[in-house]
Structures are given as C-alpha cells and as structure tokens.
Amino acid sequence: MELGTVLVILALALLLYNQWQASQAQEAATEVVSLLDEAIEENSSRIQTEDEADGEMDIIEIDGYEYIGTLTIDRFGLELPVMSEWSYAGMKIAPGRYNGSVWSDDLVICGHNYSRHFGNLKSLEAGDTLYFTDVNGNVFYYEVTEVATLAPTDVEEMVSRAEDEWDLTLFTCTIGGQARVTVRCSSME
Predict the structure, then answer these.
(1) CA 88 – CA 94 distance, rounded (Å)
(2) Whole-model pTM above 0.90?
C-alpha cells in the first residue's frame, strides 16, 4: 500500500514537471517569435533568392541560439521559431532543423511533443496547410500530404524522399517515445 502511494506521488510529480516544462517552452517560443518577427521585418528588404541561397539558409542569433525562421500551423493557431540545428537543450525552447533546407526542398524539422509545440501533429490531415517564413521574409507554403508513424530507428526514411514526393517533414515523438509522428508536406507553388 505504501509503495503504491509513493508510486502515485512520483507519477503525479512527473506529470506536473512535464507540464511545467511545456509551459516554459511555450513562453520561451512566444518570446523568440516576437524577436524573430522584428528581425524578419528588418531583413525583409533583403529577400534571398534560390540562386543566392546555394542550398543554405540564412540565420539570426537570439540569446545564443541560431534560428532559420518561423513555422506557422494555422489549424492550431501555432507560430513557432525554428532553430538552425536541433539539440535536446534547444528543443526545450523551439523545434529545430534536423536536416535539409527550404531551398533544396528537403527541410526536416523536429520538435518536442509539448502541446504548444508539435504535440498535435498527429491531428493534421492531408490537405491542411502551413507555412515557413525564413529570416529574410521569404514565405514557403506547404500542404500536408501524409501523416505517418515511423519507428525511432527509421532515420534514413525520415530524411530521404522520393523525387517530388514531399518538400517538408515535421516529426515528434509519440507519448512514451516508442515511435515518431511524421508529417509529410508538399510545396504549394
């Protein structure tokens, strides 16, 4: 009985800690989006072209972290900063680029499954739209083409793509981390 009580208390403590972390992440992301929006407004006079990009994305540094732009998912009323590279520490603030670039049509973004980050990816459906705004003000529009679940070891499948099949991939862990919710998107040109 005492062991059961201790386990229930530990489970509750873990739940509260996770909710506190999600709240902190939401606050941090909101603050960074505001700063990024200001920086993007200042940079918008320098719209980068595909020829200039050479596959590389420009970055802006904020509070010691580098960002490539913002991701907006209207269906959830969600606008998130996107870090230039993913890291466990960085994902407590914002999703990060796992691989690729908008210029080479193979951008892969990963994020925590916090409710105000990528926690609702599994609810997206084919036909939903989202967009990515880079730090120079270029806007890239995408349509969801597929929502899938991949094993955590399917790294090659996460980053590879069939020709013209998808241009953007978003992914997050399922609760418990047993799989990856993966959203594939195609450019809307």
Answers:
(1) 10
(2) no
